[in-house]
Amino acid sequence: MKKNKLVFCIGISGSGKSFLRSQLEDKFGNKIKAICPDDLRKSVLGDINKQDENDKIFAIAANKTKESLKNNYITYFDATGLNWSQNKKSIIDYTENLNIEVLILFFMDSEDLELCKERIFQDLLQGKDRSKVPENISDKQHEKFMICMKNALDDDNIPSNWSIILYNSNEFKFILNLLKG
Questions:
Q1: Residue in 87, 43, 42 with CA at minimum distance from that of residue 65
Q2: Which helix (H) or strand (E) element contains residue 51?
Q3: Deepest in the core among 31, 83, 136, 141, taking most CB within 10 A?
Q4: Number of domains in the chain
Q5: pTM of the entire structure?
Q6: What is the Rg, in whole angstroms, of the alpha carbon atoms belonging to the chain?
Protein backbone atom coordinates (compact mmCIF):
# COMPACT_ATOMS: atom_id res chain seq x y z
CA MET A 1 0.00 0.00 0.00
CA LYS A 2 1.33 3.44 -0.96
CA LYS A 3 2.10 5.65 2.04
CA ASN A 4 0.40 8.96 2.37
CA LYS A 5 2.73 11.97 2.72
CA LEU A 6 3.08 14.95 5.01
CA VAL A 7 5.37 17.71 3.77
CA PHE A 8 6.37 19.77 6.80
CA CYS A 9 8.11 23.05 5.97
CA ILE A 10 10.73 24.78 8.07
CA GLY A 11 12.02 28.12 6.87
CA ILE A 12 11.99 31.82 7.54
CA SER A 13 9.60 34.24 5.89
CA GLY A 14 10.58 34.73 2.26
CA SER A 15 12.45 31.41 1.98
CA GLY A 16 10.12 29.94 -0.66
CA LYS A 17 7.65 27.79 1.32
CA SER A 18 4.53 29.28 -0.24
CA PHE A 19 6.17 29.41 -3.66
CA LEU A 20 6.86 25.66 -3.52
CA ARG A 21 3.31 25.13 -2.30
CA SER A 22 1.91 26.89 -5.37
CA GLN A 23 4.13 24.81 -7.68
CA LEU A 24 2.97 21.58 -6.02
CA GLU A 25 -0.68 22.66 -6.16
CA ASP A 26 -0.23 23.27 -9.90
CA LYS A 27 1.18 19.74 -10.36
CA PHE A 28 -1.07 17.77 -8.01
CA GLY A 29 -4.31 19.75 -8.14
CA ASN A 30 -6.93 18.30 -5.81
CA LYS A 31 -4.59 15.54 -4.56
CA ILE A 32 -2.75 18.00 -2.31
CA LYS A 33 -4.07 20.02 0.63
CA ALA A 34 -2.07 22.96 1.92
CA ILE A 35 -2.41 24.01 5.53
CA CYS A 36 -1.05 27.50 6.15
CA PRO A 37 -1.47 29.44 9.41
CA ASP A 38 -1.19 32.74 7.48
CA ASP A 39 -4.15 31.70 5.32
CA LEU A 40 -6.07 30.72 8.45
CA ARG A 41 -5.30 34.06 10.10
CA LYS A 42 -6.83 35.77 7.09
CA SER A 43 -9.94 33.55 6.86
CA VAL A 44 -10.61 33.18 10.60
CA LEU A 45 -9.34 36.47 12.03
CA GLY A 46 -9.65 38.67 8.95
CA ASP A 47 -5.99 39.73 9.05
CA ILE A 48 -2.98 37.74 7.81
CA ASN A 49 -0.74 39.75 10.18
CA LYS A 50 -2.73 39.15 13.38
CA GLN A 51 -0.38 37.16 15.60
CA ASP A 52 -2.11 37.40 18.98
CA GLU A 53 -4.34 34.33 18.54
CA ASN A 54 -1.72 31.82 17.40
CA ASP A 55 -2.92 29.11 19.81
CA LYS A 56 -6.36 29.21 18.16
CA ILE A 57 -4.89 29.30 14.64
CA PHE A 58 -2.48 26.40 15.24
CA ALA A 59 -5.26 24.31 16.83
CA ILE A 60 -7.31 24.80 13.66
CA ALA A 61 -4.23 24.01 11.54
CA ALA A 62 -3.63 20.81 13.52
CA ASN A 63 -7.22 19.65 13.00
CA LYS A 64 -7.10 20.45 9.29
CA THR A 65 -3.78 18.61 8.94
CA LYS A 66 -5.09 15.49 10.66
CA GLU A 67 -8.25 15.53 8.56
CA SER A 68 -6.28 15.95 5.35
CA LEU A 69 -3.94 13.06 6.20
CA LYS A 70 -6.83 10.79 7.20
CA ASN A 71 -8.46 11.54 3.84
CA ASN A 72 -5.28 10.45 2.01
CA TYR A 73 -4.24 13.81 0.64
CA ILE A 74 -0.64 14.83 0.20
CA THR A 75 -0.59 17.37 3.00
CA TYR A 76 1.65 20.43 2.82
CA PHE A 77 2.12 22.24 6.14
CA ASP A 78 3.28 25.75 5.26
CA ALA A 79 4.59 27.60 8.35
CA THR A 80 7.93 28.87 9.59
CA GLY A 81 8.24 26.00 12.11
CA LEU A 82 11.37 27.29 13.83
CA ASN A 83 11.21 25.21 17.03
CA TRP A 84 12.41 21.63 16.47
CA SER A 85 10.99 20.07 19.64
CA GLN A 86 7.57 21.63 18.96
CA ASN A 87 7.69 20.54 15.31
CA LYS A 88 8.51 16.99 16.33
CA LYS A 89 5.62 16.88 18.82
CA SER A 90 3.24 18.29 16.21
CA ILE A 91 4.27 15.81 13.52
CA ILE A 92 3.89 12.90 15.94
CA ASP A 93 0.43 14.22 16.87
CA TYR A 94 -0.62 14.73 13.22
CA THR A 95 0.49 11.26 12.10
CA GLU A 96 -0.45 9.13 15.11
CA ASN A 97 -1.93 5.77 14.04
CA LEU A 98 -1.53 6.61 10.34
CA ASN A 99 0.75 5.10 7.72
CA ILE A 100 2.40 8.39 6.78
CA GLU A 101 5.70 9.24 5.16
CA VAL A 102 6.97 12.55 6.55
CA LEU A 103 9.18 14.83 4.47
CA ILE A 104 10.63 17.61 6.60
CA LEU A 105 11.90 20.33 4.30
CA PHE A 106 14.44 22.79 5.63
CA PHE A 107 14.31 25.68 3.18
CA MET A 108 17.98 26.46 2.72
CA ASP A 109 17.28 29.88 1.21
CA SER A 110 16.66 30.74 4.88
CA GLU A 111 20.42 30.93 5.26
CA ASP A 112 20.45 33.95 2.92
CA LEU A 113 18.70 36.49 5.13
CA GLU A 114 19.06 39.37 2.66
CA LEU A 115 17.52 37.31 -0.16
CA CYS A 116 14.51 36.49 2.02
CA LYS A 117 14.07 40.11 3.09
CA GLU A 118 14.22 41.20 -0.55
CA ARG A 119 11.57 38.64 -1.54
CA ILE A 120 9.25 39.94 1.19
CA PHE A 121 9.87 43.52 0.06
CA GLN A 122 9.19 42.67 -3.59
CA ASP A 123 6.02 40.71 -2.73
CA LEU A 124 4.65 43.62 -0.73
CA LEU A 125 5.67 46.09 -3.43
CA GLN A 126 3.72 44.00 -5.97
CA GLY A 127 0.68 43.99 -3.68
CA LYS A 128 0.79 40.30 -2.82
CA ASP A 129 -1.29 39.29 0.17
CA ARG A 130 1.41 38.07 2.51
CA SER A 131 2.44 38.70 6.07
CA LYS A 132 4.41 41.89 6.62
CA VAL A 133 7.52 40.73 8.45
CA PRO A 134 9.57 43.48 10.12
CA GLU A 135 13.33 43.22 9.53
CA ASN A 136 14.05 42.59 13.21
CA ILE A 137 11.65 39.61 13.13
CA SER A 138 13.39 38.26 10.01
CA ASP A 139 16.69 38.52 11.89
CA LYS A 140 15.25 36.53 14.83
CA GLN A 141 13.72 33.97 12.47
CA HIS A 142 17.11 33.48 10.83
CA GLU A 143 18.78 32.78 14.20
CA LYS A 144 15.99 30.37 15.17
CA PHE A 145 16.18 28.59 11.81
CA MET A 146 19.87 27.85 12.27
CA ILE A 147 19.26 26.46 15.78
CA CYS A 148 16.24 24.44 14.64
CA MET A 149 18.16 22.88 11.76
CA LYS A 150 21.10 21.98 14.02
CA ASN A 151 18.74 20.42 16.57
CA ALA A 152 16.98 18.36 13.89
CA LEU A 153 20.22 17.15 12.32
CA ASP A 154 21.61 16.25 15.76
CA ASP A 155 18.43 14.38 16.76
CA ASP A 156 19.15 10.65 17.06
CA ASN A 157 15.49 9.76 17.56
CA ILE A 158 13.97 10.45 14.16
CA PRO A 159 11.29 7.89 13.23
CA SER A 160 12.16 5.68 10.26
CA ASN A 161 9.27 7.04 8.16
CA TRP A 162 10.63 10.61 8.40
CA SER A 163 13.12 12.18 6.00
CA ILE A 164 14.91 15.44 6.70
CA ILE A 165 15.65 17.23 3.45
CA LEU A 166 17.81 20.33 3.08
CA TYR A 167 15.80 21.86 0.25
CA ASN A 168 17.26 24.31 -2.23
CA SER A 169 14.84 26.22 -4.42
CA ASN A 170 16.29 24.67 -7.60
CA GLU A 171 15.33 21.13 -6.50
CA PHE A 172 11.63 21.18 -7.38
CA LYS A 173 11.86 18.06 -9.57
CA PHE A 174 13.48 16.15 -6.70
CA ILE A 175 10.57 16.97 -4.38
CA LEU A 176 8.09 16.24 -7.14
CA ASN A 177 9.58 12.76 -7.61
CA LEU A 178 9.49 12.08 -3.86
CA LEU A 179 5.80 12.95 -3.77
CA LYS A 180 4.96 10.88 -6.85
CA GLY A 181 6.85 7.81 -5.65
A1: 87
A2: none
A3: 141
A4: 1
A5: 0.93
A6: 16
